[in-house]
Amino acid sequence: MPNEYVAPPQTCIGHVHLKVADLDRALAFYRDLLGFQITTRYGDQAVFLSAGGYHHHIGLNTWYSHHAPPAPLHAAGLYHFAILYPTRKDLASIFARLQAANYPITGASDHGVSEAIYLNDPDGNGVELYWDKPRDRWPHLPDGSLYMYTHPLDLRDLLKELDTSYF
To answer: Does residue 156 share a domain with residue 123?
Structure first.
């Protein structure tokens, strides 16, 4: 039986909820470095964070993971989740912030439809920080399907989006 249901075009991923080993360590990353704001906190067990006043984009909890090691790399589970920034300048700003904090990144790619910076949070969860290029600039194959690729992202060019020099 073919799948006839198609999700509505306005459908989006609303939030991610992560198991973490240490709530304060996770907050140092998501709140203090990435700039998300706490909307709700449940003692030392869980916290919900948001950008722009939404109820939560990121949930963090220690319910099953307090002081636990990171999940194994070669096992089923979360590969990464992505945080979408509204503009290329916003992506440049968070990249400059990561650089200033000497926070390690694991990659930076131009995917044709987007530009992305990859890193791991303190618990080893993969995080993608990205912005979407305007849809009219998305590359397509001759058959009309999207052509998404992975090319190196020119980080020096990205930083040119900022008013000050970071290099």
So the answer is: yes
